[in-house]
UniProtKB/TrEMBL annotation:
It comes from Gossypium trilobum. InterPro entries: Cu-oxidase-like_N (IPR011707), Cu-oxidase_2nd (IPR001117), Cu-oxidase_C (IPR011706), Cu-oxidase_fam (IPR045087), Cupredoxin (IPR008972). Keywords: Glycoprotein, Signal. It holds the Pfam family Cu-oxidase_3. Residues 1-19 form the signal peptide. The keyword Glycoprotein applies. The keyword Glycosyltransferase does not apply. Belongs to the multicopper oxidase family. This is L-ascorbate oxidase-like protein. Residues 33-146, 158-300, 381-522 form the Plastocyanin-like domain. GO terms for molecular function: copper ion binding; oxidoreductase activity.
Length: 551
């Protein structure tokens, strides 16, 4: 019996080792969220730090990594992080928005567990509770390609994260009070780059260093509250290589408009005289232009950066034309060995068209932002929990807004908004901007094909102008004033997913909704059950945990 026992033990050990080694690697983080004093514009402000950092630490992952982030909330109010652009295939439970997750109570912790399945690219994480994003709590999230998957450019000498954004010195609690009083935030006080602004007095520490003759990758993200930014490198051009998880056709740009919530990956070659240079971020589409600079230093270089900054573009027509130059790299492999262009999205029949029109109106004398006449109100019970526990009818109603809104929206309701979508339907969504302010939208759980952005009003005849060959697959889209944008996608990822304005005061005052995509077969092949350790709140807090919904 003894030899059999040894053989059996060896077999079990070997099988467990195969499971560990054959599985995807796991990376683990422990984050402590605290208050702290920050100086993004040179004056002290109460900020939100992660492990004492503003911006927060980078997550450096690789395709298919399992990511575990244990978040300790040491604030005096609830806190919740979302992972913008991570698709959470079959796993909406980790998305970190208030429609799927309860916020982390003060003095407690919650552990996120998700996989960056079949993704590459440049992303951000940031808080969705209160107006915390205005105080920090955001950082970069990169997903590197696996070593066996070719990347359509040579390995850079280094890989940098550049997070820029507008900033308000009055603090996030004051901003929240402004919004709740029914007013808008007005214009920002300034712009920061990685939490700083160069003084230009010759004593600035460099944000980044480059060695002459080498090429560097910069992941540029706009983590601001409401302002589009133009980013440019003094004396250098940028080669765009990646955008929100897609390899792009590699065009060169002197500057790039980066709208709120967006991330670009660019290559910059150190091909100038070795000295200091400025990277510049300036506001776009604002009455008063605000500019921030950061120092890029050549190693062994001598000389301060020139005070003459490269000028920004003028007007939003320039930005629209730049959008039209962005193209999907059809021959490059992304997360999988097959080329990106092997998916022929332009030949798939559209099964449903939804037009989403944003408006700004007063409700009971207070400003609200709405989509198709409904201004979203956050229920105390997350929508996904209500659905899973079988009490959705006590929290929200499905399909309370029309697919095609009227030309004039005169009345605004305040309610949770959830669209019921059919699993795997290939759909067209039109974002119609009826206002004079630029919009930026994000869709959780998916990447979509941004096939058109045009001025005027959309009509079915406009489909002839769609890019049905090489539109970039991404998760955000801007919509210019009195214009529209069209996206195409298959809703093949089951769950409860947020469509929201990335302009944060608009999101806070109602310009968002959710889509529910349910597995018709209640199958684990489509969606995971609620994980152990999921926080519960609202009307389900005292209810017994339901049996697994999916088998």
């Amino acid at each position: 019996m003894a030899p059999l026992t040894i053989i059996t033990m060896f077999f079990l050990w070997a099988r467990s080792m195969l499971t560990v080694q054959g599985g995807d690697p796991t990376i683990t983080f422990e984050w402590k969220v605290t208050y702290g004093t920050i100086f993004p514009l040179g004056v002290p402000v109460k900020g939100i730090l992660i492990n004492g950092q503003f911006p927060g630490p980078n997550i450096n992952s690789t395709t298919n990594n399992n990511v575990i982030v244990n978040v300790f909330n040491n604030l005096d109010e609830p806190f919740l992080l979302t992972w913008g652009g991570v698709q959470h295939r079959k796993n909406p439970w980790q998305d970190g928005v208030l429609g799927t997750n309860c916020p982390i109570p003060p003095g407690t912790n919650y552990t996120y567990k998700f996989q960056v399945k079949d993704q590459i690219g440049s992303y951000m994480y940031y808080p969705v509770t209160a107006m915390h994003k205005a105080a920090g709590g955001f950082g970069g999230l990169r997903i590197n390609s696996r070593l066996l998957i070719p990347v359509p450019y040579a390995d850079p000498a280094d890989d940098y994260t550049l997070i820029a954004g507008d900033f308000f010195n009055k603090g996030y609690t004051s901003l929240k009070k402004v919004l709740e009083s029914g007013r808008n935030l007005g214009r920002c006080d300034g712009v920061h780059i990685n939490g700083k602004v160069a003084k230009g007095d010759g004593n600035d520490e460099p944000l980044f260093t480059m060695e002459a003759g080498k090429t560097y990758k910069y992941r540029i993200c706009n983590a601001g509250i409401k302002t589009s930014l133009n980013v440019r490198f003094q004396g250098h051009t940028m080669k765009l290589v990646e955008m929100e998880g897609s390899h792009t056709v590699q065009n060169d740009y002197e500057s790039l408009d980066v709208h709120v919530g967006q991330c670009f990956g660019v290559l910059v070659t150190a091909d100038q005289e070795p000295k200091d240079y400025f990277v510049v971020a300036s506001t776009r589409f604002t009455q008063r232009e605000v500019t921030a600079t950061g120092v890029i230093r050549y190693t062994n270089g001598k000389g301060a950066p020139s005070p003459k900054l490269p000028p920004p573009p003028v007007g939003w027509a320039w930005s629209l034309n730049q959008f039209r130059t962005f193209r999907w790299n059809l021959t490059a492999s992304a997360a999988r060995p097959n080329p990106q262009g092997s998916y022929k999205y332009g030949s798939v029949n559209i099964t449903r068209t939804i037009k989403l029109a944003n408006t700004a109106q007063k409700v009971d004398g207070k400003l609200r932002y709405a989509i198709n006449g409904a201004s979203y109100v956050e229920p105390t019970t997350p929508l996904k929990l209500a659905e899973y526990y079988g009490v959705a009818d006590k929290v929200f109603k499905y399909d309370t807004i029309p697919d095609d809104p009227p030309a004039e929206i005169t009345k605004v309701t305040m309610e949770p908004v959830v669209l019921n979508l059919t699993h795997r339907n290939f759909m067209e969504i039109i974002f119609e901007n009826r206002e004079t302010a630029i919009q930026s939208y994000h869709l959780c759980g998916y990447a979509f094909f941004a096939v058109a952005v045009e001025t005027g009003q959309w009509s079915p005849e406009k489909r002839k102008n769609y890019n049905l060959l090489d539109a970039v697959s991404r998760h955000t889209i801007q919509v210019f004033p009195k214009s529209w944008a069209a996206i195409l996608l298959s809703f093949d990822n089951c769950g409860m997913w947020n469509i929201r304005s990335e302009v944060w005061d608009r999101r806070y005052l109602g310009q968002q909704l959710y889509v529910s995509v349910v597995s018709p077969n209640k199958s684990l092949r489509d969606e995971y059950n609620m994980p152990e350790g999921t926080l519960v709140c609202g009307i389900v807090e005292s209810m017994p945990r339901p049996p697994p919904a999916y088998t």
